[in-house]
Amino acid sequence: MNDQAYNLRRKMLLNDSEPAKTIAIVSGKGGVGKSNISTNLSILLGKENKKVLLFDLDIGMGNIHILLGSHHPYSIMDYIEEKELGIETIICENVHGISYISGGNGLKNIVEWKDRQIERFFHVMDYAVHHYDYILFDMGAGATKETLEFLLAMDEIIVVTTPEPTSITDAYSMMKYIYLRDQEKHFYLLCNRAEIKKEGLETITRLQETVRKFLHKEIVSLGVLPEDAAVRRSVIDQTPIVVGYPASAMTLSLRTMVHHLTGTSSPSANNQTGFVKKIKKLFFGR
Q: Which pLDDT value is given to residue 15?
């Protein structure tokens, strides 16, 4: 019954709406503030009257629910493993104006799934791209074979770095890893935790020049996020900084980034519709 209802709603939505724009937020190493950025960008997109789904794919280290100050008892793995569970059950809705899905540890074994598990996983993805305007995927730090397949299917990728040399090196390695599989993939570059704006801009310029020299590719700068004491306070409060500290330096910078994201032309509907097909083909050759 759940599958029949889902298929009926999907057919209705296909006639009335464009598929979601899919954006992955990644980093070469942990500890650069990626999940915090994913959470707050999602909320600001929601404030722009966009219907937003935040998908936590930081397997084993997922903390989106903590940053949102929320708790939801179900993850996508519960839906995949429980055939009686409906898709809507795993989506936590209207948290600071957005919806989110927790990943669950079992996603790391996706290549070992049985056909029924695969089918239910793609039901969720198909449902999501036809119910939302934007889907932001908070990916785990670093790159694995499984995460690479997800990234190759995304419309856009935001790479987060900090001014630290190791973070810069790892961010370049992440972009190179993806580029070697898809030279047309579109990247945004964001520098977080810059003590001064000049430091952040120099970090972005250095990475852009390196990518241009060795990969012959242009990377778009999304901007610089400053080191901000309000970030730590917001995490302790379990209140996103754009909600708890709307006048903070980081919130103002994030607002500019969101306007940049929404102001750029979206990929064609054909590309967006192909998101689920791309993942199927990349993972399972289907």
A: 45
Distances (CA, A) of 263 to 20, 45, 48, 256, 283: 16, 12, 11, 10, 32
- Pair of tokens at residue 285: 């050759």
Task: Report yes or no: 28 and 172 within 8 Å, Cβ to Cβ.
Answer: yes
Asked whether 100 and 63 are in contact (CB, 8 A), the reply is no
Beta strands at 220-226 and 134-139: parallel, antiparallel or unpaired: unpaired
For residue 161, which of 200, 211, 108 has the smallest C-alpha distance?
200
Structural domains in the chain, sorted by start: 2-281 (3.40.50.300)
pLDDT in tens, 130-165: 999 999 999 988 777 777 888 999 999 999 999 999
> How many angstroms separate the CA atoms of 177 and 173, rounded?
6
Averaged pLDDT, 217-246: 96
Instruction: Give the residue ranges of DSSP H helices in 68-114.
Output: 76-81
Q: Taken in order 182, 187, 192, 197, is the CA torsion positive or negative?
A: positive
What's the one-letter identity of residue 155? D
Give this prediction's pTM. Answer: 0.89
pLDDT at 114: 82
Residue with tokens 């690479």: 148
Outline where the chain has alpha helix (H).
2-16, 34-47, 64-67, 76-81, 115-129, 145-153, 165-179, 197-215, 229-237, 241-244, 249-263, 269-273, 275-284
Q: How many Å apart are CA 116 and CA 80, to the nearest integer?
A: 8
